[in-house]
Amino acid sequence: xxxxxxxxxxxxxxxxxxxxxxxxxxxxxxxxxxxxxxxxxxxxxxxxxxxxxxxxxxxxxxxxxxxxxxxxxxxxxxxxxxxxxxxxxxxxxxxxxxxxxxxxxxxxxxxxxxxxxxxxxxxxxxxxxxxxxxxxxxxxxxxxxxxxxxxxxxxxxxxxxxxxxxxxxxxxxxxxxxxxxxxxxxxxxxxxxxxxxxxxxxxxxxxxxxxxxxxxxxxxxxxxxxxxxxxxxxxxxxxxxxxxxxxxxxxxxxxxxxxxxxxxxxxxxxxxxxxxxxxxxxxxxxxxxxxxxxxxxxxxxxxxxxxxxxxxxxxxxxxxxxxxxxxxxxxxxxxxxxxxxxxxxxxxxxxxxxxxxxxxxxxxxxxxxxxxxxxxxxxxxxxxxxxxxxxxxxxxxxxxxxxxxxxxxxxxxxxxxxxxxxxxxxxxxxxxxxxxxxxxxxxxxxxxxxxxxxxxxxxxxxxxxxxxxxxxxxxxxxxxxxxxxxxxxxxxxxxxxxxxxxxxxxxxxxxxxxxxxxxxxxxxxxxxxxxxxxxxxxxxxxxxxxxxxxxxxxxxxxxxxxxxxxxxxx
Length: 570
Description:
The chain is an alpha/beta fold. It has 24 helices and 17 strands. It folds into 4 domains: about 1-155, Orthogonal Bundle (DNA polymerase, domain 1); about 155-245, Beta Polymerase, domain 2 (2-Layer Sandwich); about 250-320, Beta Polymerase, domain 3, CATH 3.30.210; about 330-565, Alpha-Beta Barrel (TIM Barrel), CATH 3.20.20.140. The chain has a 7-stranded parallel beta sheet with strand order 11-12-13-14-15-16-17. The chain has a 5-stranded mixed beta sheet with strand order 2-4-7-6-5, sandwiched between helices. Helix 22 (about 510-515) links the parallel strand 16 (about 495-500) and strand 17 (about 520-525).
């Protein structure tokens, strides 16, 4: 979690500096560093130990010293001093999507609003009305934003939950007293957001395990300390529960604490009909223990095939397991490429070659480099004149990279009227065209649906990226008619994306499953802007699995030759 701690501190510094009217380039430097640190798939402390800190894009001497200070001491004096220059609750205000640094400063200067409670009270009393730049719509968006912030505080995204769990599991798994360890709960089911972390351990010496668990560095307070169960709260306000169970009951406990609640209720009903009792300790008949060591033997005792954790939501998987008709789910091993990645031709941090080499190391056989199109200036959109240079660079690299291919692609913007940012004669030159909405999120459902349908109908558009535009904790999904857009996608051979970026996971699992049911192919893309972010593919695969997708439903499982044939439009 230290990566995320540092990234959040740098983001906070950028926001405070903006409130204070500091140099825009300095502000951007902190923002860029935060983004790149947040995307690292390795503990930043390892970069320090191995002298690799400066290879992280955006990290110069000054920021490197700050990172080293925080890793060494857990504190950053510059940040502590800077926070004193603004009211204590101001940073929480800035988490509201509709409240940027300028608005926050306006609210402070004119209304003395210093925190969320002040803002809520001011809205109730109508004090925001009449402020320069604050309209009725702005107030409505702020109210929605406050709810988003509250929801975001209650849950964390799947990547964050994984980092928290890994810190605790890695601290415990090498203890000689620990025979087996694993995460349960909604994290094991790979839900897109997670409230708290459940960890199960097999050990004959639970007291030793609990002692180490309660003293892991990120623990802020111990909520409960028992011989076989303890609960702690981390410095990031995450509750982590650890239970030590007997070896014979590990599978039963794993099944029970993985859930979901609805799945467990249905399982218990099946057990009762068979004259059995099932709980976290095992499966019993008339008080006699039958099994519980593994989940597999429990499912067998219930007359069912093993149900993958991602499917355990009681949405039809139990009935199929009883008939041995569960689908084969996609796995990370099936993935042959990333179909949505950016380079330094637009707003990425790495060159095309660096992105390609990173993809090759992951075992992929190709990658699509899909830089932003020309009108998206904020993301360094590629001009038509520069496209020729980019294509030439890709062609040159493809001649030198054995057993690997780089696809010449684009993430073309769908404008507010539903038109594409490049004309057809330009789009026709790309190997792969990903189309996406980046503006006009507050249009009506009909307008947004029409924009996506128009993109599907273009004969050069192959994939619709992050189709609902959501950003967890910052922006809700916009409203589109999925039946209409999926129908258009099926009729035009257009795929829809599961965007694997942690705060997107868009399409979500429900919509991915509906896409499959309607005959729409899925592409999984990381939307990487830095080479290490390619590792986020596992989050997209997790969402695909929750959406009941198999390898045959996902374009990334095809070879490059098969892909180029599959995406052709008539």
